[in-house]
């Protein structure tokens, strides 16, 4: 089987997060499976599609240092992308991809694991990430786009912990110092592991060889088609729109709280962070014993359907709180979402914990 192998020059953040969409469009229309490699020109903050920016990013710092905040179409957590990483994008036809996320990641990330092992590193796949002795060296995600499946990821070559910690929202500076220390404990890089930063050419050669060997494919060196480039530029421009960047924030402008408060005898506003396999952030406003509004965000992955979160939030709006489990279960049965990071049981548990809060109990 023949794949395209595309090496591109460094890109800005808006082009970084949209490249795979134009390629997925090409693959969906019958084009060849594609592996694309490149890196970022300058740092930017990359927010997951299911996250609220205000909860994740120190906007005062990023704005004062002209660091763009970019919302991608993929799930996962907020990451600070720097020129110190090497990025790969795998785009395949949907009918070739395992539907189970674990099988998908295992099949298409094993070559990256092997590349890292070739440097004498004890690399292993853990969920969708690649770790070295428990420290993450590669973060990855996946999504379905039309008739294609996209797997994106990176190899951390050099870490700028100071910059990363300053871009992420924290309660106070003392916590930021602790977070920077924690990052050094759970992140690593090729530089940290082998004492040098390999050239991108060296990495590309190894990546190409491992994918050919592991998947039994042959690459042909290629470039993007004019149609892909035209669509890519158009999509990158659209991603600069603040309506997109702050989409989830603007969907729930009145739910910006990290507390649980009783506002009156009939109104409560409550936020909960619940750690399932991934983090679920839920904020609920209850008025007169009805759910007036609900926000669900987090660093999980919803591969399909694309609008599942919005649909579920709308289904819950106006409902009696005791009906939450029934609505969640029915919506999962109806939409059959492909989710990595939480289950319907996790979601039910998280909502139950909110309803058990004293501030909520007092108004129910």
Automatic annotation (TrEMBL):
Residues 29-219 form the BPL/LPL catalytic domain. InterPro entries: aa-tRNA-synth_II/BPL/LPL, BPL_LPL_catalytic, Octanoyltrans_LipM/LipL. GO terms for molecular function: ligase activity. Pfam families: LplA-B_cat. It comes from the Archaea. The keyword Zinc does not apply. Keywords: Ligase. PANTHER family: OCTANOYL-[GCVH]:PROTEIN N-OCTANOYLTRANSFERASE (PTHR43679:SF2), OCTANOYLTRANSFERASE LIPM-RELATED (PTHR43679). This is Ligase. It comes from Acidianus manzaensis. The lineage of its organism: Archaea, Thermoproteota, Thermoprotei, Sulfolobales, Sulfolobaceae.
């Amino acid at each position: 089987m023949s794949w395209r192998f595309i090496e591109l020059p460094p890109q800005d953040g808006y082009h970084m997060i949209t490249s795979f969409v134009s390629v997925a469009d090409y693959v969906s229309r019958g084009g060849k499976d594609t592996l694309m490699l490149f890196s970022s020109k300058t740092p930017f903050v990359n927010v997951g599609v299911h996250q609220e920016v205000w909860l994740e990013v120190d906007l005062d710092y990023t704005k004062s240092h002209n660091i763009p905040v970019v919302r991608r179409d993929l799930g996962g957590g907020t990451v600070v992308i720097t020129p110190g990483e090497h990025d790969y994008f795998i785009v395949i036809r949907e009918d070739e991809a395992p539907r189970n996320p674990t099988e998908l990641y295992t099949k298409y990330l094993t070559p990256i694991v092997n590349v890292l092992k070739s440097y004498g590193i004890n690399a292993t796949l853990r969920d969708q990430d690649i770790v070295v002795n428990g420290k993450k060296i590669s973060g990855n995600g996946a999504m379905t786009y039309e008739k294609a499946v996209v797997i994106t990821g990176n190899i951390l070559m050099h870490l700028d912990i100071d910059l990363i910690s300053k871009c992420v929202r924290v309660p106070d500076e003392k916590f930021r110092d602790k977070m920077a220390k924690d990052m050094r404990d759970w992140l690593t890089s090729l530089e940290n592991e082998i004492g040098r930063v390999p050239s991108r050419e060296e990495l590309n050669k190894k990546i190409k060889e491992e994918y050919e060997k592991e998947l039994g494919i042959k690459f042909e060196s290629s470039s993007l088609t004019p149609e892909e480039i035209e669509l890519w530029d158009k999509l990158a421009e659209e991603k600069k729109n603040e309506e997109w960047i702050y989409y989830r924030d603007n969907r729930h402008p009145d739910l910006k709280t990290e507390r649980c408060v009783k506002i009156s005898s009939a109104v409560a506003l409550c936020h909960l962070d619940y750690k399932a396999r991934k983090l679920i952030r839920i904020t609920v406003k209850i008025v007169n014993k009805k759910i007036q509004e609900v926000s669900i965000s987090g660093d999980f992955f919803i591969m399909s359907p694309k609008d599942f979160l919005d649909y579920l939030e709308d289904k819950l709006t106006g409902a009696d709180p005791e009906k939450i489990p029934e609505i969640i279960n029915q919506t999962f049965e109806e939409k059959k979402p492909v989710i990595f990071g939480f289950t319907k049981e996790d979601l039910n548990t998280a909502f139950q914990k909110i309803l058990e809060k004293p501030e909520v109990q007092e108004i129910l």
